[in-house]
Design brief:
The complex is a heterotrimer of chains A (320), B (334) and C (299).
Chain A (H helix, E strand, L loop, with lengths): L3 H28 L4 H6 L8 H11 L5 H13 L13 H36 L4 H15 L2 H16 L15 H35 L2 H8 L4 H30 L2 H6 L5 H11 L2 H29 L7
Helix pairs in contact in A: 1-13, 5-6, 5-8, 5-10, 5-12, 5-13, 6-8, 7-8, 8-10, 9-10, 10-13, 12-13
Chain B lengths: L5 E12 L2 E13 L4 E5 L6 H9 L6 E10 L2 E2 L5 H7 L4 E4 L13 H10 L5 H14 L5 H4 L9 H13 L5 E5 L7 H18 L2 E6 L2 H7 L2 E6 L2 E7 H6 L4 H8 L50 E3 L2 E3 L20
Parallel strand pairs in B: 3-8, 3-9, 6-7, 7-8
Antiparallel strand pairs in B: 1-2, 1-4, 4-5, 9-10, 10-12, 11-12
Chain C lengths: L23 H8 L1 H22 L33 H37 L1 H15 L3 H12 L3 H28 L2 H8 L4 H37 L11 H11 L5 H28 L1 H4 L2
Helix pairs in contact in C: 1-10, 2-3, 2-10, 3-4, 3-6, 3-8, 3-10, 4-6, 5-6, 6-8, 8-9, 8-10, 9-10
Classes of the chains: A mainly alpha (320), B alpha/beta (334), C mainly alpha (299).
């Protein structure tokens, strides 16, 4: 059904992008003033003797040329060794193992809520273009895209604190496997905050695609057959509109996976975004490098999946 | 003689615009019986497509029938609630549209697209499946069993038009409305589709309304012709009579602008002078008067009704025997 | 901000697109109700920003007045005061200036570099196109806020660095937006014929490519401005943008986290300023898009 050639080319492109991301991050990190030694020792690093310095440089592997360091990092990463955090001393992979599920759960929950709300509103608006409901929904979408996450998050936290005496739990994170209600009480509100902009985007796409597809010739054909209005809408209008909607929603989900920093910060969730943010401030390069790579991998994989899905749901892309 | 199967009487349809209601159809009268083809011709904006939409009840949401009747077997479709009309649409009146390339759902298999028009009208799944294969064969498509599993992009334009015709006739309707179904096709395919519809009309006893602006198509398929201008029928006649003795100056002008294939040294074709009238600024008298070479004083005062003229119906104050012989191209317009 | 704003339907390349520089453009935007609102609000924001930077304000945005801490909105303090007794109205005005300055500079850089990259890639094709497209793909693999975050932390604080960080984020968008139309115009029979006739490439670029690419770029500029304001305030909120005591909208929201429970105005007014600016620029972008759309300009 799908051509192997396309698939191989697509994977190849993804791998090249990821290598590019790695190289770019590597270079950016090495141009930042300071290095692993100054990061771990702070101003004490100024008191080191040249011999101590050289041995430390050797220990961190930064005495070698960049290309060699890059090679060491890439081969290490491929074998699962992402290095050790300079500030916490833990392995980077163990940090990622705890942070990644939090972010993925947050993003999946937000995307689910956002997609459901956006689809519903988009169809409502699109099926009666120009009417009051349409204008109201469009206004909501505009507002949803214009309110920054940090404003919405701050407002939600303030309202929760005032009305329910709820405060973001800065203590331990409760995984979903441990307690569903305990987990949701931590993840639901930040997910809702993220879902607003997501829903607004899905709604806009759905509305415009729905309006466009509703005017298509095949919809006229379907109506001429005397089908029930529900059948015309679901099997003809929405079925065709779904193709671009799925694509755009998928790409948006890819960005969401890497765009949770602010909300994780406000709601004190120990996810990937927060880990990255603190590592950047601490100049904890191995962690930064790994986080960015993981986010880029997630993004590229999601995009690849969206591309595949697109080919599955659109028969026109299959060879005849 | 019993009443014709499908009759349109005094049909008025209007569109809401910012400037108020605009009448698109201003009293259309038509009739077509079983086994007969009526061609409706006219330039764009004459109201021929709106007539089709009014008959099937598929007018855009800002348009509505304001007066008149659409009688199918004696039942007035114009007075029916939308739900009841839907049960007639497709089941008793089939529709075929202009552009076969875009008129099929690109993401739905051919078989489903034909079958859904059957199941919507109470056919069982098994009966529908059998009928789909049968009807695809009837419209001349090869290996229907294989075809049902294909998607529209895998078929040629001519094949897609056959599928659309199959969709329309699968529920065995009494009438078929074809809105310029051959315009987008090349000439050889066009001829095949015309032959196909003529054969189906005879086999099914269909009453066919064929909407077109192409007089060549009219000559090949129609028993009778209705010529529309500015939202009204201005001439209604048997095809042969109309082509030989047009009784309305507009029809006359249309026929004169046709090329004659046998005459290689033909003079430049005369055109109808002026531009089509705007429905929002109709003149007080006959809407064709400003472009009409036969115009007399009376034409600007009042709009003529359809009257009998030697077997043709024409809406014109000036009978053909009093027409001046000037070619239409010399007609000055006001 | 989970999605990079990209004009998904750039006006189709037409033989004679409406000129961007033509004076009728603003008039056409003005004729649309949303467009008119957007123009008025954008003008108002510029006036507020100018008030903020010139210091022509009744209160000092930085001077602390402990006696007037957390005063509600009143005739003296229109938007109330913050926890240090500073006038929020004055700080919002300065904050709008801060945001607009960063947004304008960053988008100007991004539009300039991005368009040059995109147009050259689309016009000259070949290896240049390969390199630019790959580069764009790589930058697109980073979520916008992360990329800005990384660049700011590499460069350090200060509005210039924030502007550079945001410019890095938006450069690939402009490259992508300008490459598409360049490709399609460049592949048209008309331009091919010109090349065969030996018309120098720079003339083809000026005469045929630029007029077709300018419309989507202009639309993208307004949209990018609105997202740049969002990114700038987000970075400030995280403490990576403008540094205190300079007022910035993001910082004001961050500070309001401690006071909003008792003083709603500390959050409301800076938040409103951001939202209004973003909505106005978005509507302006929509208005420009329909005014520049060759399919609609005939009407």
């Amino acid at each position: 059904m799908l051509s192997w050639r396309w698939f191989v080319a697509r994977i190849g492109g993804a791998v090249i992008t990821l290598i590019g991301v790695t190289v770019v991050v590597f270079i950016v990190l090495r141009t930042i003033p300071g290095n692993a030694i100054t990061a771990s020792l702070g101003i004490e690093s100024g008191t080191l003797t040249p011999a101590q310095k050289a041995s430390l440089e050797h220990f961190y592997g930064i005495d070698k040329p960049w290309v060699a360091q890059l090679w060491t990092w890439i081969t290490g990463a491929l074998s699962g060794n992402l290095g050790i955090s300079l500030t916490s001393g833990k392995t980077v992979s163990s940090l990622l193992r705890t942070a990644l599920p939090v972010t993925v759960e947050l993003a999946v929950l937000a995307a689910m809520i956002g997609t459901a709300a956006g689809l519903l509103l988009g169809v409502l608006a699109g099926s009666r273009p120009g009417k009051v409901g349409d204008s109201a929904t469009q206004g909501f979408a505009l507002l949803g895209l214009a309110i920054p996450e940090f404003v919405l998050g701050t407002a939600v936290v303030a309202i929760l604190a005032q009305a329910f005496h709820y405060f973001p739990d800065t203590g331990t994170f409760v995984p979903l496997t441990q307690s569903v209600s305990g987990n949701l009480s931590q993840v639901l509100y930040p997910a809702l905050v993220l879902a607003v902009a997501f829903a607004a985007n899905v709604m806009r796409t759905t509305r415009s695609e729905y309006v466009e597809m509703a005017g298509a010739d095949y919809v006229r054909t379907a109506e001429g057959k005397g089908l029930r209005p529900f059948r015309v809408r679901s099997a003809h209008i929405l079925r065709n509109a779904m193709i671009p909607i799925v694509t755009l929603t998928g790409i948006q989900f890819g960005y969401l996976l890497g765009g949770t920093v602010i909300v994780e910060q406000i709601f004190a969730l120990p996810g990937l975004g927060r880990l990255l943010f603190t590592s950047i401030s601490n100049r904890d390069y191995p962690v930064v490098q790994a986080c960015v790579l993981v986010i880029a991998v997630l993004f590229v994989v999601v995009n690849l999946a969206v591309d595949l899905l697109y080919r599955v749901i659109d028969p026109r892309t299959r060879a005849s | 003689m019993s009443a014709p199967l499908l009759q349109v009487r005094g049909l008025h349809t209007a569109v809401r615009t910012r400037a108020g209601e605009l009448e698109i159809l201003r009293g259309v009268d038509l009739a077509v019986d079983r086994g007969e083809t009526l061609a409706v011709v006219g330039e764009s904006g004459s109201g021929k497509s709106f007539t089709a939409l009014s008959i099937t009840g598929l007018l855009p949401s800002d348009a509505a029938i304001t007066a008149g009747q659409v009688l199918l077997d004696g039942r007035d479709l114009a007075a029916m609630p939308a739900k009841e009309r839907r049960t007639i649409r497709g089941a008793e009146i089939g529709m075929v549209y202009q552009d076969p390339m875009t008129s099929l759902n690109p993401v739905m298999r051919i078989g489903v697209q034909v079958a859904e028009g059957l199941t919507a009208h109470g056919w069982s799944k098994q009966a529908a499946r059998a009928r789909v294969v049968e009807v695809l064969g009837e419209v001349g498509l090869p290996s229907p069993e294989r075809l049902v599993r294909l998607y529209p992009h895998q078929l040629s334009g001519g094949m897609r038009q056959r599928v659309l015709i199959a969709c329309a006739i699968a529920p065995r309707p009494k009438a078929l409305i074809a809105d310029e179904p051959t315009t987008a096709l090349d000439v050889t395919v066009q001829q095949q589709i015309l032959d196909l519809v003529a054969r189906l009309r005879d086999e099914y006893g269909l009453a066919v309304i064929w909407i077109t602006h192409d007089l060549g198509v009219v000559a090949r398929i129609a028993d009778r012709v209705a010529v529309m201008y500015a939202g009204r029928v201005v001439e209604l006649a048997d095809t042969g009579t109309l082509f030989e003795h047009p009784t309305h100056p507009y029809t006359d002008g249309l026929l004169r602008s046709l090329p004659t294939p046998d005459d290689p040294h033909q003079a430049p074709l005369p055109q109808i002078g002026g531009v089509p009238v705007s429905l929002s600024a109709l003149p007080s008298g006959c809407p064709f008067a400003p472009r009409c070479p036969q115009r007399v004083e009376r034409c600007e005062a009042a709009e003529p009704d359809l009257v009998d003229r030697d077997g043709s119906l024409a809406a014109c104050w000036v009978p053909p025997e009093r027409w001046v012989t000037a070619t239409t191209s010399e007609a000055a317009h006001a | 901000m989970s999605v990079l704003p990209v004009v998904t339907d750039p006006p189709a390349a037409a033989a004679a697109p409406p000129a961007v520089g033509d004076a009728g453009l603003i008039r056409r935007v003005w004729r649309d109700r949303n467009g008119a609102v957007a123009l008025v609000v954008t003008g108002l924001l510029i006036v507020v920003a100018l008030l903020g930077v010139t210091g022509l304000l009744p209160h000092d945005p930085i001077a602390q007045a402990p006696a007037d801490r957390l005063q509600g909105p009143s005739g003296t303090y229109w938007f109330g005061t913050d926890q240090f007794g500073r006038d929020i109205a004055a700080r919002v005005a300065v904050g709008v200036w801060t945001s607009l300055r960063v947004a304008v500079v960053s988008v100007a850089i991004a539009a300039f570099i991005g368009s040059i990259l995109g147009i050259s890639a689309g016009f000259f094709r070949g290896w240049l196109d390969q390199v630019v497209s790959r580069f764009v793909d790589i930058l697109f693999a980073f979520p916008a806020i992360l990329l800005a975050l990384a660049v700011v932390s590499a460069l350090g604080n200060g509005w210039q660095n924030t502007a550079i960080a945001i410019a890095v984020v938006y450069t690939p968008i402009f490259a992508r937006v300008s490459r598409g139309p360049t490709l399609s115009v460049g592949a048209s029979e008309y331009v091919k014929a010109q090349r065969v006739l030996g018309i120098p490439p720079w003339r083809i670029l000026l005469r045929h490519i630029l007029p077709n690419v300018s419309a989507p770029i202009v639309v993208q500029i307004t949209l990018a401005l609105s997202w740049a304001i969002l990114t700038e305030s987000s970075l400030s909120f995280l403490g990576l943008g403008t540094q205190p005591p300079t007022a910035s909208l993001g910082l004001m929201v961050a500070d309001a986290r401690d006071t909003v429970a008792t003083a709603w105005w500390t959050l409301t007014f800076p938040a409103l300023a951001i939202i209004v600016a973003v909505i106005a620029l978005n509507l302006l972008g929509d208005g420009l898009r329909s005014a520049l759309d060759p399919r609609r300009s005939g009407q």
